[in-house]
């Protein structure tokens, strides 16, 4: 390759993607670990599906967002696309394997051809953590458990200032019907209503009239309903007095469902975290019943930002410090999706919840004091040698500790002065030093010293044969401020 060609090469990640550095990965793995444990507590089994699906599997499932699907080139006579979410592949999996009931969780990357991406805080490649229940059960029982998982998940990650907005697609469809929306216009009007979390009613109304071709009086009637919000019981009380709405079969069924749900969320002790909000629409076509999403105060853009620096950002720059994160968890009921893939058209009721890891990560990371408490390395023990290199002896001690499951390192140098070795241990954040000296090696012993205590001592003299159990016991007595699991847990205090 010529020198001129090399100079023209742009070293960057594709738009809407980013590299995740070592400390970031520690936080993300902590989030994955916590959510996996939570899903298992609720009986979840995990599956995996291909990162791309046949294009016909994904088409027609996402409403207006279908334009965001990444289509791949024809390879070997098959048209395929990158998965847009984990829900449609799950429904395909259930139908393809003839499953009648399953609780599954799935943590994996999904892809959306959003434009622009980074400067709006949106990614083209990101992780989702999904938990879904497929199967026929009593009305609203699994739905209530989804809401409990949602609330427990956020609280367990130290995110307490959130609110879960709820609505029911049958109620929303009933509202559109009684307000005069034609059946073929319901989904496009619904997508306009879904923007009420970002835009005032006046702008949404204008979109309904000018772009969705709805009469002004229809838009105004819809406005009277979608402005309603409050506790489940407060909104139910108003809806149950609306004779016109109750006469609509779809809305009436949704109102009955919400009345049942009210008792269940009270039993789980989460009712105060929920808001029945008739403006919530969730634009995806496959939802059929209860829908929900969680937002926080930080879901909105921050008010104190460096405006000069924000203006200097290019379209594909990472703007996560300057934009709101939007909803951080979302989900709902989708009873007809599996039937779309089944030859018998047999419908398997499903309900699920999806945690947006990148958005949750940005909130957790802020609470970890800008990485000051997070170590990239898991190394707990550093092996040192004074007065002599003792390289092979250090290797032998490291092998003993590794075999005992202890994260251990040493300098890859035959000889090094003590200062450099202590600096290396400090950089890694090690808690314990195992020290080899001439006298100790001759006696078949080592010194075990606890680091960062402020005490200047030589450490404890320990037999080489006993070094692994001794160090393990010593580590168990040390409270590690960099343990990501403890950090996440401490955020709830």
Automatic annotation (TrEMBL):
Its EC number is 6.1.1.21. GO terms for biological process: histidyl-tRNA aminoacylation; mitochondrial translation. One of its GO terms (molecular function) is histidine-tRNA ligase activity. Keywords: Aminoacyl-tRNA synthetase, ATP-binding, Cytoplasm, Ligase, Nucleotide-binding, Protein biosynthesis. L-histidine binds at residues 85-87, 112, 128, 132, 282, 286-287. GO terms for cellular component: cytosol; mitochondrion. Its main location: cytoplasm. This is Histidine--tRNA ligase, mitochondrial. It comes from Komagataella phaffii (strain ATCC 76273 / CBS 7435 / CECT 11047 / NRRL Y-11430 / Wegner 21-1) (Yeast).
């Amino acid at each position: 390759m010529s020198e001129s060609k090399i100079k023209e090469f742009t070293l960057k990640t594709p738009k809407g993607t980013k590299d995740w550095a070592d400390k970031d990965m520690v936080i993300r793995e902590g989030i994955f670990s916590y959510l996996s444990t939570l899903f298992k507590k609720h009986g979840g089994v995990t599956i995996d599906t291909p990162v791309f699906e046949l294009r016909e599997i994904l088409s027609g499932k996402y409403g207006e967002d279908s334009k965001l699907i990444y289509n791949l080139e024809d390879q070997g006579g098959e048209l395929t696309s990158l998965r847009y979410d984990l829900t449609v592949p799950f429904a395909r999996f259930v139908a393809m394997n003839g499953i009648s009931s399953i609780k599954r969780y799935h943590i994996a990357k999904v892809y959306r051809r959003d434009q622009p991406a980074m400067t709006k805080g949106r990614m083209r490649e990101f992780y989702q953590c999904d938990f879904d229940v497929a199967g026929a059960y009593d009305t609203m029982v699994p739905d209530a458990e989804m809401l409990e998982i949602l609330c427990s998940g956020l609280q367990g990650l130290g995110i307490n200032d959130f609110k879960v907005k709820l609505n029911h697609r049958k109620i929303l469809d009933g509202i559109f019907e009684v307000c005069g929306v034609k059946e073929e216009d319901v989904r496009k009007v619904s997508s306009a209503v879904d923007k009420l979390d970002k835009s005032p009613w006046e702008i949404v109304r204008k979109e309904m009239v000018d772009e969705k071709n709805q009469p002004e009086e229809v838009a105004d009637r819809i406005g009277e309903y979608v402005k309603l919000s409050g506790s489940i019981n407060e909104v139910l009380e108003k809806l149950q007095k609306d004779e016109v709405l109750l006469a609509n079969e779809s809305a009436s069924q949704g109102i009955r469902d919400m009345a049942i749900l009210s008792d269940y969320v009270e039993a789980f002790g989460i009712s105060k975290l929920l808001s029945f909000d008739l403006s919530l629409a969730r634009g995806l076509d496959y939802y059929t019943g209860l829908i929900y999403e969680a937002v926080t105060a930080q879901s909105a853009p921050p008010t104190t930002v460096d405006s000069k620096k924000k203006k200097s950002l290019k379209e594909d720059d990472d703007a996560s410090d300057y934009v709101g994160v939007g909803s951080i968890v979302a989900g709902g009921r989708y009873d007809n999706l599996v039937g779309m893939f089944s030859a018998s058209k047999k419908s398997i009721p499903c309900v699920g919840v999806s945690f947006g890891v990148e958005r949750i990560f940005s909130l957790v990371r802020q609470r970890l004091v800008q990485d000051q408490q997070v170590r990239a390395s898991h190394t707990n023990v550093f092996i040192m040698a004074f007065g002599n290199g003792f390289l092979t002896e250090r290797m032998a001690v490291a092998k003993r500790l590794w075999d005992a499951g202890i994260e251990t390192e040493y300098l890859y140098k035959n000889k090094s002065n003590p200062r450099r070795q202590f600096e290396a241990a400090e950089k890694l954040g090690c808690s314990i030093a195992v020290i080899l000296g001439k006298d100790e090696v001759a006696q078949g012993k080592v010194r075990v010293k606890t680091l960062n205590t402020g005490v200047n001592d030589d450490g404890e003299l320990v037999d080489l044969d006993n070094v692994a159990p001794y160090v393990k016991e010593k580590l168990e007595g040390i409270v590690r401020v960099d343990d990501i699991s403890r950090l996440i847990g401490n955020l709830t205090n």
